[in-house]
Structure to design on (771 residues):
């Protein structure tokens, strides 16, 4: 252990290799409720220093865990198996902005929203906007293939990443993707995005910048029942309208948010829809009218159109501070993430509420309704005996209900440790074997963030070693 | 033919080298498979289109025109190029985007779920049927453009999009394509051959009129039926969008994208050795005996 720390300190500088109890406590977890154990935490500044960290870890037979701000919710950055934790939050340079070709090269520690602020004067923005965009890093976004409200029309992170410079698990550097339209070879860029640190560490990322739309309309619709709101979502899509964002908040979260931000959300609504349309003015106008009409036809009690940018910002502040607002209700929360077909929203939501009631838990829903991306949020006080078991049991039941409806395990948070053992719910042994082969092509020795994403026994060769209960 | 029958036809290692044939519209890409390689054809047919989901499940051997017609009945489409005779599986395996990539995005982002037959003759699923999904590694992205060297597509779920209310093609002889690019908000397509600039405007009728107005000071525009067709003998290559202004000789370039159609094959780009190592390990992991499309190479 001392030799490992000495070697890392020699490779970086002593002050950027931490072993203090406080540092190890901080880096033992991410934003999930899963806790691991960190032994040593490094803060490289350059690609060469990341290579050095990976090589030192390898020389000492240690795996490594890449990490950004640690806002991940699936335990992907939780250290398991005595790894070297490699934190990229000090790699914060925006290396190049090219307004003509609409891309930027950034280091992985650049914060998502900082990039948008940095290019705003060019009439451009970085489209993926996870709710944590003020604190999450673009490197972390690449690792988890992050989404966000505006991914409904603009696509998730993968659609906005052109090229990635990656330090592989053997310490070599590879350039995946490229700035040209059709880079040569397999789309390894696409494989790397969303690989949760299991294929290497991104040290430079070329992201696409998107023109700021000339017209934006933001509408708030409120409903007397959740079913009416969910039916409106389906009807909007069926009408051939793809809003920039289409978010739902249920009664409990709407009240919590209103007490927090005072945006004028109707406190007696069963649910509200926040709908944003953007693009050229005539299309936006026509779609806004169509959305309002669809909403009214499905029982919308009021349709409020944001009059100006201030009101629009206020409505979005309500949506994006939902997780801050719930801190006033209970000290802990467990945020789920699953996707169901949009046409199944009504029935799945009913099931999800029933599951919470069955487990005697307080649940709220605030989510990306337009793409069927549910975020059931269970609030609790972990000091209450037995509550964690109930939270986990409800979580498993929610997962199974979403899969039974034709859905998938995660829309934007990833699998990490949290959902790893649920993977066989949606993938066969052959499916998991293919994913394992993809991962192993990047990292044959399994040194990059091992034990994440794929359940043990995913490789057909070691099927006989499946632990009891791993296959659900 | 169902998916299992297709998997049976592909067979396992004992069944020897095999290639999958679509519409042969881009058969030359990556080189032809070794002569005498046994040929199989993927199953065809539109399985399920749910308009309110904006997704469609379709067998890989379906002709793209058939899929497009089925989607058009509900006012939808995909971003795939509509090439007569081409199949959905073939277009995905080649991975070339349509001339509207500038506005619609690349083909690679359209594949949500793939069921493919692996080198052992087993059906494997990648991705999922919903529009947003980070459950596991993103094998779908790797399959697009892999030329059937990792597995043969059998059935896919694709993302759909609403057909635009209005779509017009315009052309002008005297318009600077880069000024056109800057003057418009997310045009569907801008093409340029060094002299003529073609533009495709799409959207609500009022917006198309407004965008046409925005173009009026930049050139003398006339309505045309559609984009120019590069001669069949020309090759397709890719460069950075900024490099297009330096092109010489005959060409058709996709402005803002970087795809170039020209009679001359450009020199190959330098190869990243570390990437190539991963790529070769991937091919070996998926097809240890090299039986899938032998002779065809993803550069």
């Amino acid at each position: 252990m001392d030799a490992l720390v000495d070697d890392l300190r020699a490779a970086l500088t002593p002050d950027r290799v931490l072993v203090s109890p406080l540092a190890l406590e901080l880096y033992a977890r991410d934003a999930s409720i899963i806790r691991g154990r960190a032994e040593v935490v490094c803060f490289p500044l350059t690609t060469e220093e990341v290579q050095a960290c990976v090589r030192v870890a390898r020389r000492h037979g240690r795996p490594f865990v890449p990490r950004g701000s640690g806002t991940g919710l699936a335990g992907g950055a939780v250290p398991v198996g005595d790894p070297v934790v490699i934190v990229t939050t000090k790699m914060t340079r925006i290396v190049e902005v090219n307004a003509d070709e609409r891309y930027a090269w950034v280091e992985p520690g650049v914060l998502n929203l900082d990039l948008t602020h940095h290019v705003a004067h060019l009439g451009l923005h970085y489209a993926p906007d996870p709710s944590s965009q003020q604190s999450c890093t673009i490197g972390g976004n690449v690792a988890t293939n992050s989404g966000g409200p505006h991914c409904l029309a603009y696509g998730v992170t993968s659609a906005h990443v052109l090229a990635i410079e990656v330090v592989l698990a053997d310490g070599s550097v590879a350039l995946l993707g490229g700035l040209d339209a059709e880079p040569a070879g397999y789309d390894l860029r696409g494989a790397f995005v969303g690989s949760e640190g299991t294929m290497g560490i991104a040290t430079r990322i070329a992201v696409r910048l998107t023109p700021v739309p000339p017209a934006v309309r933001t509408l708030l619709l409120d409903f007397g029942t959740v079913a009416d709101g969910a039916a409106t979502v389906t009807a909007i899509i069926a009408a051939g309208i793809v809003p920039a964002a289409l978010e739902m908040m249920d009664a409990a979260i709407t009240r919590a948010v209103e007490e927090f931000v005072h945006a004028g959300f109707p406190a007696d609504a069963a649910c509200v829809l926040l709908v944003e349309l953007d693009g050229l003015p005539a299309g936006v106008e026509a779609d806004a009218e169509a959305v309002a009409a669809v909403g009214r036809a499905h029982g919308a009690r009021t349709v409020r159109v944001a009059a100006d940018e201030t009101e629009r910002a206020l409505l979005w502040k309500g949506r994006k501070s939902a997780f801050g607002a719930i801190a006033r209700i209970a000290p802990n929360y467990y945020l789920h993430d699953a996707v169901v077909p949009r046409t199944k929203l009504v029935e799945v939501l009913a099931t999800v509420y029933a599951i919470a009631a069955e487990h005697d838990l307080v649940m709220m829903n605030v989510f990306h309704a337009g793409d069927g991306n549910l975020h059931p949020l269970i609030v609790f006080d972990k000091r209450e005996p037995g509550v964690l078991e109930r939270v986990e049991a409800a979580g498993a039941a929610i997962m199974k209900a979403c899969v039974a409806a034709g859905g998938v395990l995660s829309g934007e948070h990833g699998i990490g440790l949290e959902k790893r053992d649920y993977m066989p719910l949606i993938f066969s042994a052959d499916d998991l074997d293919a994913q394992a082969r993809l991962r192993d092509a990047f990292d044959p020795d399994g040194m990059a963030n091992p034990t994440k994403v794929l359940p043990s026994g995913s490789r057909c060769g070691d099927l006989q070693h499946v632990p009891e209960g791993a296959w659900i | 033919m169902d998916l299992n029958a297709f998997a049976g036809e592909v067979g396992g290692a004992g069944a020897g080298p095999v290639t999958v044939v679509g519409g042969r519209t881009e058969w030359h890409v990556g080189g032809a498979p070794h002569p005498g390689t046994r040929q199989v054809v993927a199953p065809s047919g539109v399985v399920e289109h749910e308009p309110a989901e904006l997704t469609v499940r379709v067998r890989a051997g379906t002709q793209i025109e058939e899929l497009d017609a089925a989607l058009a009945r509900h006012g939808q489409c995909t971003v795939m190029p509509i090439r007569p005779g081409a199949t959905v599986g073939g277009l995905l395996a080649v991975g070339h985007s349509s001339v509207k990539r500038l506005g619609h995005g690349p083909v690679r982002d359209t594949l949500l779920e793939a069921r493919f037959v692996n080198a052992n003759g087993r059906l494997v699923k990648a991705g999922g049927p919903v529009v947003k999904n980070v459950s596991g590694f993103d094998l779908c992205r790797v399959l697009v453009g892999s030329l059937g060297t990792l597995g043969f597509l059998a059935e896919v779920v694709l993302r759909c999009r609403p057909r635009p209310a209005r779509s017009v093609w315009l052309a002008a002889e005297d318009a600077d394509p880069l000024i056109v690019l800057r003057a418009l908000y997310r045009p569907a397509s801008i093409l340029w051959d060094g002299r003529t600039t073609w533009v495709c405007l799409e959207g609500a009728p009022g917006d198309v009129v407004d965008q046409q107005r925005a173009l009026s000071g930049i050139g003398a525009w006339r309505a045309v039926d559609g984009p120019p067709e590069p001669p069949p003998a020309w090759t397709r290559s890719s460069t950075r969008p900024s490099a297009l202004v330096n092109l010489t000789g005959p060409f058709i370039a996709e402005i803002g994208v970087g795809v170039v159609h020209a009679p001359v094959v450009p020199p190959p780009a330098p190869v990243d050795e570390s990437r190539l190592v991963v790529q070769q390990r991937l091919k070996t992991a998926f097809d240890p005996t090299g039986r899938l499309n032998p002779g065809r190479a993803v550069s």
